[in-house]
Structures are given as C-alpha cells and as structure tokens.
User: What shape does this take?
Amino acid sequence: MEFGPIKPLIYNVMLPFLEFSYNSIYPNYGVAIILLTIIIKLAFFPLMQKQYKSMKAMQVLSPEMQNIREKYKSNPQKLQLELLALYKKHNVNPLAGCLPMLIQIPFFLAIYSTINSEAFKALISQEGINHGLFTFWLADLSIPDSTYILPIILAGFTYWSQKLMVVDKNQMKLLILSPILILVFGLKLPSGVLLYWAASTVLSTIQQHWVLSSKSNDTIKNKPLKKGEA
Assistant: This one.
C-alpha cells in the first residue's frame, strides 16, 4: 500500500517520528503511536472544528429539513430546490464534513502500512526493545489484540460518534451497522493500527461532543425558519 502520498508519509514522517519518540521521549512504541495520533489530531483540529460546526448546523435545521421532505415528497426536483434554498439561507454546506475526513485517509493508510512494514517490524524486533504498549496488554503491536479490548473501544466510540451525528431516522441503520463492521474488521488488524485508530476516534468523538453540546449560537447565521415557513 506504499503508493502516492503514502510512501513519503511512511518513510519521512511515521517511521522517523516513532523511532525519535522511542529514543528521545519515552521508550515505548505504543506511547509513540499515541503521541503521533495526538499530533495529527492537533494538526487537523481547525478543520475538524468546521466539520463539527457544520454537523451542529445541520442538526439545528433538521426539523425544517424534515418538513420540506414531507411537503415535497412527491416532487423530488422541488424538494432538492427547497433544501438548497434552506442551506443557502443559513449559509450551511451539507458536504462541509467530507473534506476533513478525506484528508485524514492517507494518514490512516500510512500508519497501516507503517505497522505492517518490514522496517517497523525490524525496529521492534531488535534485542532489548520494548515492542508493545504493556507486557500484559498489546505486548506486540504487529499482531491483533487478542483481548479484543481495542476493537470494542473503537466500535463503542464509533457508535457514540455516529449517534451524535444522526439528524434523521434514515441514518439509524448506519448507527448500528457501522460499529459492527468496524468491530469485525478490527479483530484482525495489527494492534498498532488499532491503537492509532482507536486513539484518533476517541479524540475526535470528544471534540465532536464538545462542539455539538456547546450552547453557542454561531453555527448558523440566521435563525431557523418557523414550522411550515419553507
């Protein structure tokens, strides 16, 4: 999976940072992965703030969106025009949350490739090297988590994150399906990859909860329309 922007990320960012962290910050590759995750999350913090504020705005407008769908359910073209008019009135972009997620995909692919690379396996296989997080849990970051703790944490926080984003009943199936698929997928991933993914998801969900639970009223620039006004 070393293609395009992934290869430079692996050999110029991921591996050098993990080795630097182990040798200069704390001799633990599990801690190094967590520190790397925190740095990446901080780098994307402003973009993620915009994404979550967009989500909050969509939640505020959800009742009006539902009214429009009910009113024009037999006229799909008019339905789309009315929804676009609603988004324009409140300066909301329903696709604003896509870019931050897309930008982060190369970093996930890079950490996946890094943990599975021969270079990383050579690092953790050196004599006297601590190649896990703890001796009793995640003792080897290159193999799956045999306790299933990380996949469960990841699935749990994914469920919470999805629940925070739900704006209508049509998304409820995704609320259940996505965490289950991630749990099953995570059972076979190397624990180093899962550690990055779980730490990233936990941090993102906390930030998401903070933004969505905020009482700030600056997420939309106009007050929502009254019922039936659309």
Notes: The CA atoms of residues 16 and 138 lie 22 Å apart. The longest helix spans residues 45-71. The mean pLDDT is 84.
